[in-house]
Each structure stands twice: as C-alpha cells, then as structure tokens.
Amino acid sequence: MKLRVRYFAALRERIGRSEETVEVPEGVATVSDLRRALIARGEPWTSAFAETRRVRAAVDQAMAGDDAPLREGVEVAFFPPVTGG
Amino acid sequence: MSVRVQRELFDVGAEIAQLRADPRVGAVASFVGVVRDVNDDAAVAAMTLEHYPGMTEKSLEAIVEQARSRWNVYEILVIHRIGELRPTDPIVLVIVTSAHRGDAFAACQFVMDYLKTDAPFWKKEATPEGARWVEARDSDGAARERWERK
Fold first, then answer.
1. DSSP 3-state assignment of B126?
2. Three-point CA angle B69, B65, B7, nearest 5°
3. Distance CA B143, CA B117 (A)
4. CB contact (8 A) between residue A85 and residue B59
5. Which end of chain A is less enclosed by CB atoms within 10 A, N or C?
6. Do B22 and B96 touch, CB atoms closer than 8 A?
7. Residues with Cβ < 8 Å from A80, sequence gap 6 or more?
8. How confident is the model over B29-67, as pLDDT tens digits?
9. How many CB atoms lie within 10 A of CB B47?
10. CB contact under 8 A, A61 and B55
C-alpha cells in the first residue's frame, strides 16, 4: 500500500523533509500502525517522533485518531499540537 | 468567502463595514488576535506562522458551520494570517453578525476556541536564545471542552 505522508512544524524540521511517498509494510492498517512503522525505520524518524510531544495526525486533511483506518493513496499528516490564533 | 488564509494585513474597519451593511444585523462581535512581544518569559522579536494548506481552510469552514448550526447568526468571517509577523501585528480576525448580541458574542468565542485547538497552524518564535516552536497550552483544550458540555 502506497501513502503520501506529510510532516509539519517541529516534526518537519526534525525529519528534514515536508513529505514523502511511503510504501507501507504488510499489516499497517491504522494511523498508529503507520507511526510505528515510520519509527521502526530508524533515524531521523525515531528521534523526531520521540522528541515531539503529543504528535497529532490527520488523514486526508481531517484530524484523525490512532485507530483511523488507512487505505491506498490517502494523505496522512503528522504534526505537533496546533498553535494558531 | 467566509474563510481566508493570507499573508497580507486585514482591514478590520472595512470588513465590519461590509458585514453590517445587511439591514437585519443588530449586533457585530469581533475578535482580533495580536502578536505579543513576550511569551513564556522570553522576548519575542518576530514569529513565523506555518499552516497545512487545504486542511486549514477545511477545518476553519467546519468550525464556522458548527457555529452556524448552534447560534442564530447571519455571517461569520474568519481571516488568519501566515508567514512572518512582528509584535503588534494582527494575526487573526473573527467577525460574527446577528440580530442580537448574545448569539454574536457566543459564536465569536466558540470559533476562536475551536480554531486554537483544531485549525492546523503552528507558530515559531524568534527569541534572543534562538528560534523555538510555540507549545500548545492546556488551557486551550479546556476552553474548547466547555462548549462540549453545554
């Protein structure tokens, strides 16, 4: 399954890129599965996710919880809690 | 268009004048968020606002729709700036028009409370110790939650 993964703010800086296409391993079905798979790749993902407090996610540009399901072609974003306004 | 994300400064007076031209309007409530020169005990020389194009507009529109379904309002306008801003620069503008003040005040506060926790913007501050990302405040989550209990 191929996904577009995007990173914002502190997480983007720590990973050193704003987006990438990820071919996810078998068994990755939810947002939390994807986060675990990215962390398992090693650096810079491991440290970036460890150093960013309370990482949030969005699937196809809507806030998504850990259990949100993923399917081919979706856009998944990871970012720190928002600080606008 | 009731939601705008832009680099440019906005004109509060001009926006209010346009919205109160509707003769049904009896109340206009507005909020302007401004860059301060200090945050968490550090001097702030400038800040940069990053956002998630596409999701930002969708989330603001969803917040506006929720406010519309909860209160009797005529128009809701949200303008949020991005890019580099300095102390005293306005960041965000919310204007709500309604027949009476109660709906306008409540909807305006609701939109701001939800924007703080749901709209994908991130602030990075330039301080004497270097640049740092602003941390989300627990009080913002609490401000949003009180609307869920009502």
1. strand
2. 150
3. 9
4. no
5. N
6. no
7. A8, A9, A10, A11, A52, A53, A54, A55, A56, B122, B133, B136
8. 999 999 999 998 889 999 999 999 999 999 999 999 999
9. 23
10. yes
Chain B CA closest to residue A63 = B118
A14-21: long-range pairs with CB below 8 Å, 24+: A14/A44, A14/A47, A14/A48, A14/A51, A14/A52, A15/A44, A15/A45, A15/A48, A16/A44
Which residues of chain A lie closer than 8 angstroms to B133, CB-CB? 9-10, 80, 83
10-residue mean pLDDT profile of chain A (85 residues): values are 97 97 94 97 96 95 97 97 96
Contact A83 B54 (CB under 8 A): no
Cα dist from B139 to A19, B11, B41, B86, B135, whole Å: 31, 29, 17, 24, 12
Please give the single-letter amino acid code of residue A43.
E
A13, A24, A48, A55 from A16: Cα distances, Å: 5, 20, 9, 16
Q: What is the 3-state secondary structure (H, E, C) of B17-84?
A: HHHCCCCCCCEEEEEEEECCCEECCEECCEEEEEECCCHHHHHHHHHHHHHHHHCCEEEEEEEEECEE
Whole-prediction pTM value? Answer: 0.94
Spatial neighbors of B150 by CB under 8 A, at least 6 apart, are none
- The sheet carrying A56-59 orders its strands as A19-23, A2-7, A75-79, A56-59, A62-64
Give the chain A residue nearest B132 (alpha carbons): A10
Q: Is the pLDDT of residue B150 over 80?
A: no
